[in-house]
Amino acid sequence: MPELPEVEVVRAGLAPAVTGATILGADVFDPRALTRHVGDPASFEAAVSGRRVVAAARRGKFLWLPLADDDRDREGEGEAIVAHLGMSGQLLLRSPGSAAERHERIRLHVVHSAHGELDVVFADQRTFGSLAVDRLTPTSDGAPGGWGTDAAATPSQVAHIARDPLDPAFDDGLFRTRLARTASAIKRVLLDQTVVSGIGNIYADESLWAARIHPETAASALPARTVNRLLEEVRIVLERALAEGGTSFDAQYVNVNGQAGYFAHSLRAYGRTGEPCPRCGRPIVRVSFTNRSSHYCPHCQRRR
Length: 304
Known about the structure:
Layout: H1 4-18, E1 22-28, H2 41-48, E2 52-53, E3 57-59, E4 62-68, E5 79-84, E6 89-94, E7 104-112, E8 116-124, E9 130-138, E10 153-155, H3 172-180, H4 186-191, H5 201-211, H6 224-243, E11 285-289, E12 292-296
Antiparallel strand pairs: 1-7, 2-4, 3-4, 4-5, 5-9, 6-8, 7-8, 9-10, 11-12
Helix pairs in contact: 1-6, 5-6
C-alpha cells in the first residue's frame, strides 16, 4: 500500500495543476471506485462539476481537494474530494482526450488559468482505492488539517487519522504518552493510523532498523530517549524516501506523470531477507506479522 512518501509525491504533483482550477465535469466508469462516496456515480459527477479546487491536501495516506463554488468561498468550508489510493490507486495528469489508462475508473476534466485544460485520472488495478465527495470538519487541535492546506479542517472520513511525524503540528509528547500506555508491539503501534499516520510496513521496518529496536518490543517498555530516537529515525527515513520519489517495486506506485520512485534501492531491511545487514553484516530475517512480514536484523535489533 502507498505510504506517506508515495502519497505526498502525488499530492505535490497535483497541487500546481489543480489548485485554482475549475472542474468542468467528471466521468465515472466504475462505481467500485466510489465505495467511500455516499451516493451513486451521477451524484458524484453532479457534486464536483462546476466547483473550484482550492488546494491539494494530505494527512497520512489520505488526499483531499477542498472545493469552492465561487471566489467568496473559503478553504476549509463546505466539501472536498477525498481520495484513498488503497493498494494500487494512481492519480495521473493527462491531456484532454488522451487514451484511457489501463484500469481507469474515474476521470475529472479541469481547466486552469495557467495550464489550460487537463484531465485528472484515477486508475486502480485492485479497486481497493476510492474517491468521494465528503464534508469538511474542523480539526480537534485547531491546526491546519495537513500538508498543503492552511485551513483547520479535514474531510470527515479523515478526522480519526492521526497526524504524521512530518506534520508541523505533530505532538511528540502525546506520541510518547500513547506509547507509554500500550503494551502492544512497537511495530503494531507504528502501523496504527489513529496513533501516528503515514507509516506502513516498509517504513516501519526501515525506521525500527535505523533505531535498533526489535519490532516486537512492547511500546510501553521503550524509554523516552529511545522513543525520541525512533521519532528522529522515522522522520529521516520518510524525508529520504520523499527526496527519492517514494518506493516503487512495480509500475503501480507512480507520481502524477507515471514515473516510479527509486527509494527501493536504498532500503536497508525491508525486502532484504537473507542479505547482509548494512550495519553488522549478519543476515536480515523475515518473520510473519499480522498478515504481513517484518524484516529486521536479530543482532542489531535484539529483543530486550
